Amino acid sequence: MSAPLAAASRAALGSRTLLVDGIGELVTNDPSLGEGPLGIVRDAALLVVDGRVAWVGATGSAPWADGATVLHAAGRAVVPGFVDSHAHLAFAGDRAEEFAARMAGTPYTAGGISSTVRATRAADDATLGATVARLAAEALASGTTTQECKSGYGLTVHDERRSLTVAAPHVAETTFLGAHVVPEEYAARRDDYVALVMGEMLEACAPHASWIDVFCDRGAFDGDEARAILRAGVDRGLRPRIHANQLEHGPGVQVAVEVGAASADHCTHLTDADVEALAGSGTVATLLPAAEFSTRSPYPDARRLLSAGATLALAADCNPGSSYTTSMPFCIAVAVREMRMSPGEALLAATRGGARALRREDVGHLGIGARGDLVVLDAPSHLHLAYRPGAPIVAAVAREGVPVGRGPLVDIEPWESPS
Predict the structure, then answer these.
(1) Which of 96, 94, 26 is nearest to 55 (CA)?
(2) pTM of the prediction?
């Protein structure tokens, strides 16, 4: 099945055009374009004009575009760019010793966040910005073309604001997470810190963020605090999301649904009522399997959520303590192996699911009009994302139709008319 060239005449094509041809398996995530929920098109080509998907069809059938860039897939699979809707990239310091202790049997309690807070406060802006840039580039190289980043390791007005400002140039979405934990200096004045987050800190950070988040769990914030903080953020123009039910069952999922949060993230410990609430709402259940991998914790029951009809996203949760990875292919492999998701379900959650968790309709798919964010796999099928865990199978990445990285096996060249 091919789609007509949308709103672009042949004359309009040119140097801002990317053709990907010779695609063995194209995953569009648009069922109107191909087979099944993934909208798979075989022996396909795809045309991106001015950053947007303009045409999908059979190899050799694309409109001519003199001067365009051509990426020869040579039978490889192409999938939408991954959408990582949960990351903590603005930090300083290292917690490798804490990881080693966990592997030796020390349970994860989130207490190590305080050590990262101390290191982050001591770091200058250049150091924090360099860390965000390094991790964002690492994510892009593994196929992540849309990434969210939270604050949350500063926990002062100054440090939360600067965490957001240093992150913004490197990511697509920024989230204010002043309510990560109560910092040590406020241990005996918890109410004062909640008031600070809802007041002066929110006012300083809101201009630099699109979202507000709260860690609602043991050792962090309770349901009443989370509800109040999220509502204060909404009143200030931010959209809500929440860390919910990671360490134990709690009110986080119910608060998320009540306030209309875009996503409830972690969702490890759920009751039937929580599952029902997620399935009956617009709140995406964002699962973070690398966190369970790194903390030796129970994995979320993805099958239970899928069977109930909930919308799932997968995200990497890159942070220095509990999930120090930027690799969405790794998360897909773990979700398939440990959470009993099919390879197609995991890919859909890592792309279109992540987009829904960010309330984005322009990314996470390769339907007509979508942003031209795509990944060429050095494999014949998307199944290899789970089938070959840890293998460097990302052969090329394009964002808005611009190649931003490629392996040695993918040829990119100008397209010249045969006439």
Answers:
(1) 26
(2) 0.93
